[in-house]
């Protein structure tokens, strides 16, 4: 059977100021009609470059196809002039990007942009017919009130709705091939489940082929018919999803699979992590490009590049594939790398931990933001970001905080550091009310409270050297100067696993994981008692994520840190946390020890969150349990239980009465009239 898409020995180069960079080389694969193929690999492996080359979009980014062919059905895409590509894009192949806001023009309505796309592909349609088709597409992708949404601007839609709208626009030309580049990376686990379920339905409905790019192997396991693993611009393994997960044949694939944090990961042991990081395209090693990070590398691997060998419908590029351990023996094999972290106790069963004194106590904290009143309205409206939240964080524990975007997690975290002042309520740090402290006293107290941000690049000044970034807290608090400051900074670099020789380098010279280590070094410079990690690993690849989590666990023990860990990756939050709080629309609706929360969730929302996590097992049935709808606006929350508008078990009592936050088991609290 002829393939819908055939990519043969593709090579792509980018022209830079200094030289020409070979981004991908000798890429070959095909996709059949109705098939879902996943491209996986770390950032910098060439996944997005490959997808943009198929669409011929790289030419707008100083890129060029220098070798190979791309065949879409009977059309040679590489030979088409740009003018003819316009009719091909959208009509036969379309793309869904990672960041939906970047795909829409913010000054035009959603409707005008979708209808323009529809009429571009079918000029016989009138404006009215195109608008009706746009509304039908929005309804098909699960957007309620499509006629209203067509009149709205991109900034008025949530991330999940905007992603659905972008899928609707991609479907407007009825393409045979849909390329989805990390379409769920920035989304909550519940919205991610909705989008993935939608893609599965669209595949079945239109017999559409999908090329899905992701670094989440759980998503790949649930979605893919076949998986292609890329590393440093080359394909290193390609096979059916079931075969790849049960018997990987390349050490890099094995490392990625072992790095996955799951709901079954042993919390008493460090996570498995691949050492090092993916090389830059200007500094590719000779021989096998993975050999500097591979535990099975030999002298042959350093000299000669292995060819992509094919056996029984599978492909891999490794000199020693036949000598790799069987799946059942992987745990006993020579490890790729494991961060030297002391084994920690099962914290949920630690009575001493439960009886520890509180480091932070939050009492009835509320944060409301005033909305600007319109010229005609005298009524002032408020966004209820956090509403009457109370809990404690004990000394030495890690308290996890989960919930969808808009639930108030980050706002609550910033109030703990008093970066945001509560509208009402009290935050106590070591029994000291932070609200009573003056500016200078609060600054002194902040030595003991530090934060790790989500974006390791945006949180540091790109014009400063690494040594100045990490050493700035010493200057702010008048601690160390000159040689003493440099020695202390170099000690911090060693502590977070970086070589002190990087002191005089700039942030852009480092990978994402290395930049996050720099941010962590800065955060622990003053030896704080409390660390707030706000989505600190959510933007990282699975292997780098494991490295950073292990580092945080090691630092927690060495420095006796107390942590608030905010995240939407529930499997990661479970692994690092002693207790977990679940937030929904500004309210804390459940708190429980980590294992208890995941084994026996008492709130329907918590159960829905857990059910939405993709499982890295391709043998599981391909369906995603999702919560219907999206989180309501915090400016107009529902009456009674705020989750009732999306809860399948809601009753009349839920609409009339706000549930009390009560204990349903040891250390287990929930706000639900009828807990599970």
From TrEMBL:
ABC transporter domain: residues covered: 7-257, 360-610
Subcellular location: Cell membrane
Keywords from the named record: ATP-binding, Cell membrane, Membrane, Nucleotide-binding, Transport
SMART domains: AAA (SM00382)
Pfam family for this entry, one: ABC_tran
GO molecular function, one term: ATP binding
Record-linked InterPro entries: AAA+_ATPase (IPR003593), ABC_Ni/Peptide_Import (IPR050388), ABC_transporter-like_ATP-bd (IPR003439), ABC_transporter-like_CS (IPR017871), Oligopep_ABC_C (IPR013563), P-loop_NTPase (IPR027417)
Membrane topology: Peripheral membrane protein
Keyword hit for ATP-binding: yes
Family per similarity comment: Belongs to the ABC transporter superfamily.
Protein's recorded name: Peptide/nickel transport system ATP-binding protein
Biological source species: Paenibacillus aceris
